[in-house]
């Protein structure tokens, strides 16, 4: 009995000095039920409408609930985002919402938070599953099924292209889960169709101008391209600019497909310059905070919470504009 009491005192002393208590590392940290929480949101970047919409949703829901939100923007740097998470740990937030820039570096940040006794919920991007796992290192992943998004694009292409489809694929950020999965889903969906050939796949970093530059370069190498599959709207819009500068008509001479479903892209579908878009809804706030409250209440949280996503084509784009982000 005396030994047990001594151990309890020793563990308490370690906790006050900031040293990780071994028991924390044996499972997910606990979170008590409170009226308000101090939570962190580590955003990867804010250089496109999707990220801006996601951040706005997180901020608005925190304000509605009366929670304190510690917000950081990594500016597209995985190293900066790791530092942001460590800063939140030092500020002793109750929980962290993380949109990982890249899978591997941010897995270590997730483990740092768990060791400090802070639960983490991943939003829209995952971490390397060989390094960190749901239910052990972080609570859950909330987001879209990226593989299914790519599959939906591939399935649409198979049903709608005519003759030989010669595809340029504009990839998302190297090492990110949406880029990895959107590529896999698409390529798996079209690989059995011999009339579809992928001419080139190159990283456009989910950015509009980078997508334009990459498309411009690839057009010179592959002037016979007649399909563009971009991993997000921003790169698709950049590709449209490159196609038009080359004298091609996007949507007609070249089929254009993308993922995200922002208002600008949906308008381009309505205008006939983009042929097909799969939505990836950025409005995470309500679901994110509700999931954290459920976790604090002791409810069982699944390893993945998949958001339902719509799609847009020539028939549905006009009607979908009103609710697109």
TrEMBL record:
Transmembrane segments: none
Localization, UniProt: Cell envelope
Amino-acid biosynthesis recorded as keyword: no
Pfam families with a match to the protein in the record: Peripla_BP_4
Gene Ontology cellular component terms for the protein in this record: cell envelope
An example molecular function term from Gene Ontology annotations: carbohydrate binding
CDD domains: PBP1_galactofuranose_YtfQ-like
Residues of the signal peptide: 1-25
Family to which this protein belongs: Belongs to the bacterial solute-binding protein 2 family.
Protein name: Monosaccharide ABC transporter substrate-binding protein (CUT2 family)
């Amino acid at each position: 009995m005396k030994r047990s009491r001594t151990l309890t005192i020793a563990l308490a002393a370690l906790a006050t000095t900031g040293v990780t208590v071994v028991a924390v590392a044996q499972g997910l940290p606990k979170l008590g039920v409170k009226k308000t929480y101090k939570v962190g949101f580590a955003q990867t970047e804010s250089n496109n409408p999707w990220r801006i919409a996601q951040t706005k949703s997180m901020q608005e829901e925190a304000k509605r609930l009366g929670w304190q939100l510690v917000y950081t923007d990594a500016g597209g740097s995985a190293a900066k985002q790791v530092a942001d998470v460590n800063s939140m740990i030092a500020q002793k937030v109750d929980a962290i919402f993380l949109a990982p820039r890249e899978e591997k570096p941010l897995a270590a940040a997730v483990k740092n938070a768990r060791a400090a006794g802070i639960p983490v919920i991943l939003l829209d991007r995952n971490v390397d599953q060989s390094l960190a796992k749901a239910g052990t290192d972080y609570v859950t992943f909330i987001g879209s099924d990226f593989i299914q998004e790519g599959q939906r694009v591939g399935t649409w292409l198979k049903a709608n292209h005519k003759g030989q489809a010669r595809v340029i694929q504009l990839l998302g950020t190297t090492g990110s889960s949406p880029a990895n999965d959107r590529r896999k889903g698409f390529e798996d969906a079209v690989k059995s169709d011999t009339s579809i050939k992928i001419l080139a796949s190159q990283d456009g970093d989910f950015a509009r101008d980078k997508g334009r530059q990459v498309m411009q370069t690839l057009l010179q190498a592959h002037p016979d391209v007649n399909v563009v599959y971009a991993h997000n709207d921003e790169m698709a819009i950049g590709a449209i600019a490159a196609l038009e500068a080359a004298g091609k008509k996007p949507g007609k001479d070249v089929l254009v497909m993308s993922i995200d479903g922002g208002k600008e892209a949906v308008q381009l579908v309505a205008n006939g310059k983009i042929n097909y878009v799969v939505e990836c809804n950025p409005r995470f706030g309500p679901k994110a905070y509700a999931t954290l409250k459920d976790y604090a209440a002791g409810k069982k949280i699944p390893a993945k919470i998949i958001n339902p996503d719509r799609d847009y084509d020539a028939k549905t784009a006009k009607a979908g504009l009103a609710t697109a982000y």
